[in-house]
Design goal:
The complex is a heterodimer. Chain A is α/β, with parallel strands linked by helices. Helices cover 36% and strands 24% of the residues of chain A. Chain B contains 16 helices and no strands.
Amino acid sequence: MLKIDKLSKSFGGILATDNVSLELKPNSINALIGPNGAGKTTLFNLITGKIDIDEGQIFIDNTNITNLKESEITHLGIARAFQITNIFSTLSVQDSIKVALLAKQHGLNNMWNRFKAHSINKEAESIAKLSGLTKSYNTISSALSHGDQKLLDIALALALKPKVLLLDEPTAGMGPEERWKMIDRIQKLWKKTKMTVLFIEHDMDIVFDIAQNIYVLQQGAIIAEGTPKEIKSNKKVIKAYLGGGKK
Amino acid sequence: MNLLKKDNFQRDVFLGLLVWFMLIIFYYILPDPGIHDIIQKVFILGLFAMSLNILIGYLGLIAFGHAAFFASGAYTLGLFLQSDFVLNLAGFSIPVAIVLAVLVSSILATLIGVICIRLKDIYFSFLTLAFQMLIYSIILALVNITGGDQGLMGGFPKPPFLGIDLGKPFDFYAFTIFISIITIVLLRQLIESPFGYGLRMIRDNSERPAALGFNNQKHKLIAFIIAGSIAGLAGSLQALLDVGAYPEWAFWSKSAEPLFMILLGGMHSFLGPLMGALIFEILNDFVTANTRYYGLVLGLVILCFVLGLKKGLLDWLLIKLNRK
């Protein structure tokens, strides 16, 4: 589904992404882990075209998307949710999802219909339902709880009906209970939509619980990959990341 | 009254025409030329301010050179009506002149917009200001065409068209308000359309749209052109009213006027800038009649709004009425 081939990126001489290769299988759920500063978000930024690639190539469904613009890559089926919630503060949940739907379909050039009465309403409702935002459907984004803002961020990505969904720390800043609710939601989403999911997460319990495949990033390079069982027993990973008395 | 319940284009057209009729009845009830003059100026300046509010209120871009388009509309109309084309066109001169004024302003807005919308925040503001001052200098320099610092000299004819004679006060009053209201109704359609929500989206978060597969720059440019065109229309109406055009209309202080109106009336309600124009004109009229210190009074009033209400009057009223 998503294939990355020998990807490298450096910022002022510091290698942020070091010869990374990986391939996500269709309809799989994968975790990307690694200590702070390992280059996880940078990798997301490279995949989505937010920053330029130095070396290497990226393919989605055998289409080469290397060096395409961010908006073009989005149209080819990669969507992401952000680590720091990245939503439209004065728009309601409903309106936010609708603009996201219309943005994808080039529908925001339309000047002759009324946005409020637009036929896209039903589709927006189903995305809100899928994201668990039905209760706060008419709430202004800035008034949502932190968890719901995170969900809205994901809902905006879902509105693009992506083949590959990248989630950058979907549980960041959440308490334990909220965390598991979020993970539950993501798992349900993944099962319903048959997307390929790659998520960044720091909580190892969560990672080992839901990921089929785990990639461990350290100093920009992938030092291990495999199933939760393989990663748990991988000596490199234990030394670099899981060790030091931590679980 | 079913028509009034639904928020759609038909309702806006109906309400617009209703307001127009009421203002025409008002013309006969209160036959005071001074008040008629204020009302038509409120609409002209209101259009100017509302066009700027597309950028400020809905797109979040503080354009500080909006008077460039007001002036280009005014000078285009004036120069065209001074030319020999009028002899051939006769009855069509004024409609053609207005269309041409809007067209020239839109072309100017395209040229300036292509460069300015690449920038953000204060850099955008300053660049629009710089372009406006360039236009101002051009107007001053081309003395043979524009009359330089004296403005367009000698006036221009206003040939009647379709039975409308803009030389007559009533015709001018009815025509100006009609054009303004139609433009406002169309502008509301734009603001409430998916395009309008695209503007709000960029205003709230200019980074996310790219991750939604959306091209901000194109959207911003179209909005900039529309805003410039409406400012050009307002300028052309102002030129018709004053039978002339003046370089001060391209000076930076002219760009500050619609900003004041937006501050006074409110940037978050659609008609806020129009209300701001009303406050501005009333202040202008009553204050200048009584004191020389107009600027001082205007400044104090704006301070009251900014520090007291913390928003424009219409924004404040709508929040009070809980209708927002």
